[in-house]
Fold:
Amino acid sequence: MRQVTDQYTKTAHTRPPAKLNLFLELLARRPDGFHEIDTVMIPIDWCDELQLQRIPDNRIELQVEWLPSLQIVAQRLGVEPESPTGRNLLAIPSDESNLVHRALTAFRNAFEIKDGFCCQLGKQIPAGAGLGGASSDAASALLCAARLCDIAADNPQLNELAAQIGSDVPFFLGMGGTEPIDGARATGRGEQIKAIELGKKLDCVVVFPAVCLSTAAVYANSQVPSNPRDAADLLNRLQDPKTTDLGSAMLNRLTDPAKKLAPQIAEILESLWHDELRTCQLTGSGSACFAISTSWGEAKRAASKLRARLEPGGFVMATQSTQVPAKIDVS
Structure:
């Protein structure tokens, strides 16, 4: 067994970010049930909060809560926490079904860590939204555990573990090491990552319509096009700091199946369009939608107008692009 050297009093703190898919194309259906995809993702500064400590016990202890509180989040979503709809939106498991728990268990097994971990997870990113919150939390848990156990962030086993846990998890690790990236083009089932650079920060408005969508259900209702589009045009535009129009180069092939499962998505996209946020689309498999604004001030003004119309009954957030992996502080 590996002997760790950090004291049990040390705590790793980080803020796992959400992500947006600026481009998502289906290339083929794989024999293992997944799809070959081509996607361009950026992290945004809508973040969860994660703290991790080592403990001498041979177990994983995971505590999960909504921030700033369950009651405030439920009020914004327009649900009662204990209603069936409220439980569907707000019940976050703390057992082995949580990706953070799975990540820490896999980490202990892979590196033969005999000590346990205690993790406090503060949720702000909604589940079933296509924002990658659970995957981001899992990636941050792996990196925090590595930091506390004196394992290099560029250890290739971390990427292997991430790919086993979920298709989006490797993205949130960045490219390994500590050098952050602006975003990535991901292929395979999403686990093959190539870093991209943005010519400038992107200012976005994100709307979550208080509906959780199953990724598996959305993909099951999707169709692989006979002539898939390529992300090259979008990547070229993203690198140009003067580019203001990304809309015609953006794509999400999962939009139609997601709309069939959640008609609210069409209404959200129409609301964004009518507020002159024309560069708008679904992120991931939904249900969240986003628009790219012309400036940070315009994003905040648009979010305020949409919030007045749509809340309670969903989340409306003005956000900016950021970088992955998330910074880790140890105290």
About this structure: The chain has two domains: 11-197, 203-320. DSSP finds eleven helices and 14 strands in the chain. The longest strand covers residues 17-29.
